[in-house]
Amino acid sequence: MSASFLKIDNLRVHFPVSGGWLKATRRLKAVDGVSLEIARGEALGIVGESGCGKSTLARAILKLVDVTAGQVVWLGKPIESLSTRQMRPLRDSMQIVFQDPLASLNPRMTVGEIVSEPLRVHRPHLTRAQRKAEVGQMLERVGLSRDQINRYPHEFSGGQCQRIGIARAMILQPKLLVCDEPVSALDVSIQAQIINLLEGLKRESGTSILFVSHNLAVVRRLCERVLVLYLGKTMEVAPSDELFRAARHPYTLGLLASVPIPDPDVQPARLEIALSGELPSPLSPPSGCVFRTRCKFAIERCATQVPVLESASERSQVACHRWRELRENAG
Amino acid sequence: MTAILAVDALSVRYETPDGVVNAVNDVSLEIAAGECIGVVGESGAGKSQAFLAVMGLLAPNAKVSGGAKLRGRELLGTDPRALRELRGAELAMIFQDPMTSLAPHIKVGDQIAETLVVHKRTSWRDARAQALKLLEQVQVTDAARRLTQYPHELSGGMRQRVMIAIALACDPVMLIADEPTTALDVSVQAQILSLLKRLMRERGMALALITHDLGVVAGLADHVTVLYAGRVVEAGTVRRLLKQPAHPYTAALLRSMPRIDASVSEPLVAIRGQPPSPRELVGGCPFHPRCDLAQPRCAEERPTLRSTAGAMVACHFPIAASHGDLS
Asked: Which residues of A touch B257 (CB under 8 A)?
């Protein structure tokens, strides 16, 4: 593997939560000790249920939220303690696409203004004509037409707005593209268009992608590796082909079994509950293994001892006391 | 087969200052007792509009024509007071966003009990006792405490369970579920779907499951109706539709879905363009501008829904079984 250019070490993002007047402030541990690396051109998927800390992790990497502890090393340089001003010159190399395509575009700016704004900020030497040419090219690359440059976001459908959001993120040719649930607000027939567009852009530009999604089928298509997050902690990291063929962590197995398959011969049996209960409050996470309250295989040890993230194969890691035993029983 | 709900040539249109909006066009379907029918389509396909019309919940400027009979009794054009007695008692509906469909300032126990007080003239004391039983039936943990909580104190999955409890309070013969799991995590989605399946079986209740997700349909539905641009394009058994789709739209939807159980080496086949807005009038077949199999005839003449080998299809050139077999 080539030298990873994004490396995150033991990252923590904690938010203070007021308990009320005269009550102690509590700490919500949104991300609690996550380490990961992304190589050049690699796509890493971050999956988990709502509230597991996926978006906070993505935003902490871009320094859109403050990091409580740990390190974020971007192109060999620690960035977690940089000021907003010091961060600014680095921003052109890391861009983000948001979930809600219409809400993330300024309704009072034309498409041309939206897509050219990053150029105006980060490439001030470009002339107006050069900017316009680049914007036109970018729009065509994401499947829109140059003629639409003077239109406003409300004149576009959800899928087209997401294309505009992707154009705005890609115009600076970033080295890292963070996608936070980029297709979940779109219609089924449009999702495939955007997935194919992202696949194409990744192939052509060699941009690394951090892909945050709760949709495992989409992650499987786009990402070479997957990190499974639960209550701010890593449960499992593995290459996609390994994870989707033979996941090790009971949480990953439960998530995979919950994804509906459009086959009437298979799906009715899958409806038997794969994962019971819901995510506990991150304000009072369970002791020991955070997943144990929903785990079919939990034993006493899981309540007392936090499982460490250990190597399970050459490129995968899992945090579960019983994974070996479960795998032997299953095999 | 006696239909619990029979929708016949239902159309919904709006006259707006910007022109006529045809939300639902000539939709017919039947649901038998204890059966689940999946109603599939993208945004703007008319799936919610059709069932809101059945419930009599459309905006006052909606023009509804056609018929909808619940156990032989016509619902459309019924006196609003009579309809109000049916709604919630025999015919109930749950929605996508359980937060906005619950009253934020009323305890969930009282919201469940209210249905019984209104429809069954139960006393509040008895109704609250029944509310507890209902919450237990929809598998809400710690049900007694939940009764006194407000919707914002519950998770999305819990709120949807409360909505289901309200819908089931008067033991309806028919439940309409409009994208009941779209706002939920896959794990909770699986729980809610299996709950709906169990409740159907236990109560012999019919279910209309409105969704855009063919995977959700595969787990629950007996029959499926696919809507496009406010029209039925294909209808048949769930096996026929998902295994041998005859309409190019159904087939294309299936091919465009990323699947967890399929190879990723082949690119997804996206459907080009986007679903038409109900404001636009597309001549001929409404799907022809996006259809890979379209011929000149498709732009000129609208195909009618006709029966072909076990399914109803509105297409001039339906896919033959051998080509459409995806299994």
From this structure: 188, 192, 217, 262
